[in-house]
């Protein structure tokens, strides 16, 4: 009996011991972990941990292009431009089955917070907010290229887009042999004349002097695009005159050579026309094409250099005015073109291809012709201009666009332009003879 009781006690103790051992392997219920004590300095934020949510974000393969553009060529522009462009973007998205969308973001044209300024300042500090493509003033493309803000497009654009552009437009988008911009909307200067005062417009300066045709063109220092005052640049009209007198603009590098003989020819014409009373006495105060227009329409000037855009918009209210190429030294000048281009800024290959598709869509002749005409600008390809229909003025514009040249480039241009403008000012003020002014520009002391 005693042995039986001892056996039962032994079994009972064994069960208790086994239960205690199993408890050693049972994991306790999880408790919220405390955040570890940070070893960082008080000024350093701890690295955030990824947050796991119960519902994952929906996966989509839609690509949205961010497009920076000035207001005048955006869906927000006044009719007919805004509604037309909006329709083009909608059709573009439909053509891509909704897989590519476009988000136009309006930016100021110039100045602080403007297109180039925003690109330049955002690149080093917030590259994530940069757009995929931008509409940029052609005058600012060189700086944007130098800052590394733009992407080459040669492998992205089909030949039927770039090869069909006017020559100046192809050149204006080329930098070091690469296509960095595609000009879209442009303008140039040409002459207009009052048929009541001029029977046959002169094509040369000698003809203007012989016929005694009063003539106005911008001669003062150009105004800054941001309306922040005057610049040290020289007028487009002068560059065109200088080139007509034998000045050299390298077709590849677009460097403008500073040469005494061509400069002397232009300055001699300025002096002779001024002494003959054919130039307004206040011509140095004429700093913009808007001012030229006012002088021509309000002061009864016989002939003037004007913006093609301005004449295009107002030609119907000037029934006695006609158009002609601006006169030059031995033949009419080759006009300088200016305007706006589309550039690609994204470095992502997939987004680059989508951005290039949008450029091709907008630059197709029918769309480009209709939109540019609605905006009151000139197109950059003969095919786009042909969509405007038959008209003597449109045929004239085609000839001017065919012969137009792109604006000079190069780091030395600023100094060259300042010397040229200084020579113009000296002669028109009577402070120096053409020979003295030309020599001072070529070999400044």
Compact overview of the structure:
This protein has 17 helices and ten strands. It is an alpha/beta fold and 445 residues long.
Order of helices and strands: HEHEHEHHHEEEHEHHHEHEEHHHHHH
User: DSSP strand (E) fraction?
Assistant: 5-15%
| C-alpha-based Rg, rounded | 34 Å
Query: Could you tell me how far the N terminus lies from the C terminus, measured between alpha carbons in angstroms?
Result: 133 Å
The portion of residues assigned to helices is: 40-55%
The number of distinct structural domains comes to: 2
The tally of strands reads 10
Helix segment count? 17
Mean pLDDT: 87
CATH-assigned homologous superfamily of the largest domain: Periplasmic binding protein-like II
Structural class assignment: alpha/beta
Q: What is the overall shape?
A: globular
Which parts are unreliable, with pLDDT below 50 for 5 consecutive residues or more? Answer: 1-59
Please name the CATH topology of the largest domain: D-Maltodextrin-Binding Protein, domain 2
CATH architecture of the largest domain: 3-Layer(aba) Sandwich
Could you give a short account of the major beta sheet? 8 strands, mixed
CATH class of the largest domain: Alpha Beta
Overview of this structure, please?
The protein is globular. It folds into 2 domains: 63-185 and 338-403, 3-Layer(aba) Sandwich (D-Maltodextrin-Binding Protein, domain 2); 187-336 and 408-442, D-Maltodextrin-Binding Protein, domain 2 (3-Layer(aba) Sandwich), CATH 3.40.190. It contains 17 helices and 10 strands. Helix 8 (236-244) crosses helix 9 (260-275) and helix 16 (413-429) packs antiparallel against helix 17. With 445 residues, the chain is of the alpha/beta class. Mean pLDDT is 87; it is low at 1-59. The strands form 2 sheets. Strands 1, 2, 3, 6, 7, 8, 9 and 10 form an 8-stranded mixed β-sheet that branches. A two-stranded antiparallel ribbon has the order 4-5. The relative contact order is 0.15.
């Amino acid at each position: 009996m005693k042995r039986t009781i001892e056996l039962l006690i032994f079994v009972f103790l064994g069960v208790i011991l086994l239960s205690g051992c199993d408890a050693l392997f049972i994991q306790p219920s999880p408790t919220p972990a405390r955040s570890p004590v940070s070893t960082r300095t008080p000024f350093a934020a701890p690295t955030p941990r990824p947050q796991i949510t119960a519902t994952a974000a929906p996966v989509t393969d839609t690509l949205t292009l961010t497009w920076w553009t000035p207001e005048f060529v955006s869906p927000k522009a006044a009719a007919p431009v805004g509604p037309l462009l909006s329709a083009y973007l909608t059709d573009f998205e439909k053509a891509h089955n909704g897989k590519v969308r476009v988000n136009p973001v309006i930016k100021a044209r110039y100045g602080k917070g403007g297109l180039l300024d925003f690109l330049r300042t955002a690149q080093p500090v917030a590259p994530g907010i940069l757009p995929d493509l931008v509409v940029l003033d052609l005058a600012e493309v060189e700086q944007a290229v130098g800052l590394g803000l733009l992407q080459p497009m040669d492998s992205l654009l089909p030949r039927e887009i770039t090869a069909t552009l006017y020559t100046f437009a192809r050149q204006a988008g080329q930098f070091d042999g690469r296509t960095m911009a595609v000009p879209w909307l442009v303008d140039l200067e040409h002459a207009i004349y009052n048929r009541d005062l001029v029977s046959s417009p002169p094509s040369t300066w000698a003809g203007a002097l012989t016929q005694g045709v009063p003539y106005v063109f911008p001669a003062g220092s150009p105004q800054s695009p941001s309306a922040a005052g005057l610049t040290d640049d020289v007028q487009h009209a002068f560059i065109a005159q200088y080139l007509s007198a034998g000045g050299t603009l390298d077709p590849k590098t677009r460097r403008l050579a500073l040469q005494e003989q061509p400069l002397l020819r232009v300055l001699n014409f300025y002096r002779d026309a001024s002494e003959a009373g054919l130039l307004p006495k206040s011509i140095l105060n004429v700093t913009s094409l808007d001012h030229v227009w006012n002088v021509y329409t309000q002061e009864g000037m016989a002939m003037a250099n004007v913006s093609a855009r301005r004449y295009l918009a107002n030609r119907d209210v000037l029934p006695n005015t006609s158009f002609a190429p601006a006169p030059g030294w031995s033949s009419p000048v080759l006009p300088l073109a200016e305007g706006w281009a589309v550039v690609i800024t994204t470095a992502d290959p997939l987004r680059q291809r989508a951005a290039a598709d949008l450029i091709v869509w907008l630059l197709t002749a029918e769309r480009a012709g209709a939109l540019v005409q609605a905006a009151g600008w000139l197109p950059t390809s003969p095919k786009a201009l042909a969509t405007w229909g038959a008209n003597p003025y449109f045929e004239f514009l085609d000839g001017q666009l065919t012969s137009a040249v792109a604006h000079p480039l190069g780091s030395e241009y600023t100094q060259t332009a300042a010397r040229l403008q200084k020579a113009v000012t000296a002669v028109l003020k009577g402070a120096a003879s053409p020979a003295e002014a030309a020599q001072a520009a070529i070999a400044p002391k």
